[in-house]
User: Fold these one by one.
Assistant:
Number 1:
Amino acid sequence: ILNFNNLYPNIELSVLGLRTGDIREKLLRNELDIGITFLPVQDKEIISIPLYKSDLTLVVPTGHRLAERNHVSIAE
């Protein structure tokens, strides 16, 4: 953030910890310019653009029924 402020001194950058629904509401009320969420926001007035793809890692104890699998779906 310090580097950003040094590069762009005329831009105010605030980092807030908000829930997705709160981000949606603040965007719709023009209280935020952008928001970053883990899941896309479903609203016809908001565009969600993926920033990057992240793989999740499942951690289970030895002997667990999924322990020997290379891939596991979220449904499992």
Number 2:
Amino acid sequence: MKSLVRANSHEVEAATRDLSLGGAQIESSLAVQPGRQIAVKLIVPGDDTPILIEQARVQWNVDRTFGVRFVDLQPREQDELEQLIDEYIALDEERKS
């Protein structure tokens, strides 16, 4: 899934993989170190409004890939994330059948 990641004033395109309610794996050109706080915008196909996760903490990094843990999700963020994950699970199950 396409996304944007922001640290300080730098915002760059990224690819989000392995998304869950707790966090995600992200591939990006942004150089971040574990412990760094970033923001993640998930670009939902067919939806004009991205899902904005204001607080994501970098847990690990290898080359251009890093893992984040979502911190203090707001109820709206959690609801949108749950809905997005449910939609992807349904699409995946539909493809398998």
